[in-house]
Amino acid sequence: MERMITRTGPTRPRRRRLLVWFLALCVVWTLGAIAWAAVALLTPAGDGPEEAVERKAGMHHDQHQPAGRYYIPRYAKVEKDGTAVLRYEVGNSQDSSVKDFLRTYDITAEPKRTGPSDVTYSDRFGDVRRTFTVNYNPSPEPGGYDYARITVRARGTDAS
Predict the structure, then answer these.
(1) By CB neighbour count within 10 A (0-12 exposed, 13-18 middle, 19+ buried), where does 55 fall?
(2) pLDDT at position 84
C-alpha cells in the first residue's frame, strides 16, 4: 500500500489568521456603527430654517423665556442683504392681540403711525435693530380690528 502524504500544516494557521483579522474587522465595524448611532440619537436636533431666522431677528422663544408663550411666524426668510424678515398674524382677542405680542417680545418702543391702519415700532435686541410694522385689518365694529399682520425686519448693527 502506498501511503499518501498531504500537507495540511501551513494552510491551517493561514486560515486562522485570516479568520482572526476578519472577526477583528467585524468588531471594529460594529463598534463604529454603535458609536455613530449613539451620537446621532443623543445629539439634540438643531434649529430648523425658520427657527434660525427667528434667532437672527431676536424673536425665538428661547430668547424670551420669561414671557411663557410665543407666536409662530407664518413666514420666515433671510433676504440677500442679510435682513431677517418674519411675518405674524395675530387676532383681536385676549389670547392673541398686538398688545400681547408686544408684551411677549418686550417691545417697549413708542409707536409711529405710518398710515391709516399701519403702525411702526423700532427697537434694538442685543446687536440687532428691529422694525415692526403692524397692519390692522379693520373690523366692522368701531375702533376694532379682525386681525393684524405684523412684519418684523431685523438686521445686525454690525452690518452696513
Answers:
(1) middle
(2) 95
